[in-house]
Write a structure and sequence with these properties.
single chain, 166 residues, alpha/beta, Dihydrofolate Reductase, subunit A, two-stranded antiparallel sheet, 4 helices, binds NADP nicotinamide-adenine-dinucleotide phosphate
Length: 166
């Protein structure tokens, strides 16, 4: 199954300055536990945004990039190559982990989207598509408000009513 996982502010903002807008330890823990030992798919900017631009441990990292050359993750050079790499893992849990460009392109193929909603406005430069305005998506789990480092977050889940096949 293909899922996207993201945290977004009240305006569906997800990042600025090629980084995160908030420090959210509980959300980080949820992200780590959810994706651990599975396959993660990301764009080149998201990989560069990680500490020392290193891939995530104990996960298969598939990275869409025109320019990067490295042997510590699977680099794919086009969406065609990306879809092929994802098909090679289609019996596994695949998580699309960002950023804006990759979420936007892969959203139709995601059966579910796990959205951590942050009750704040972070001044984003990069946004996730607003799923509340997308008739193809339905919120099936609203989550309880949780305090995370002084901010209120909710772990929500959306289902794609029209999932496209790879
Ligand atoms: N809130 C969250 O949960 C969350 C999660 C992840 C990321 N983010 C944020 O999202 C932002 C980054 O998002 P973004 O939209 O700038 O970038 P992105 O989606 O991470 O990556 C874009 C990159 O993907 C590669 N790419 C795109 N189209 C391609 C194609 N057709 N063929 C080959 N490669 C292609 C290029 O990489 P190269 O430049 O390497 O060639 C391009 O620069 C950051 O602020 C990050 O912190 C937020």
């Amino acid at each position: 199954m293909i899922r996207a996982i993201v945290h977004a502010d009240k305006e569906w903002g997800i990042g600025k300055g090629n980084g995160m807008m908030f420090s959210l330890p509980k959300d980080m823990k949820f992200f780590r536990e959810t994706t651990m030992n599975h396959v993660v798919v990301m764009g080149g900017n998201t990989l560069r945004s990680f500490p020392n631009a290193k891939p995530l441990k104990n996960r298969v990292n598939i990275v869409l990039s025109r320019g990067q050359v490295r042997d510590d993750c699977v680099i794919v050079r086009s969406y065609e190559e990306l879809f092929k790499a994802m098909k090679d893992h289609e019996d596994e849990e695949i998580y699309v982990i960002g950023g804006g460009e990759v979420y936007r392109e892969l959203l139709p193929y995601c059966e579910e989207v796990l959205v951590t909603k942050v009750d704040a406005v972070g001044g984003a430069e990069v946004f996730f598509p607003n799923l509340d305005e997308n008739p193809d998506f339905q919120c099936v789990d609203e989550g309880e408000p949780v305090d995370d480092n002084g901010l209120t977050i909710r772990f929500t889940r959306y289902k794609n009513l029209k999932t496209r096949k790879l």
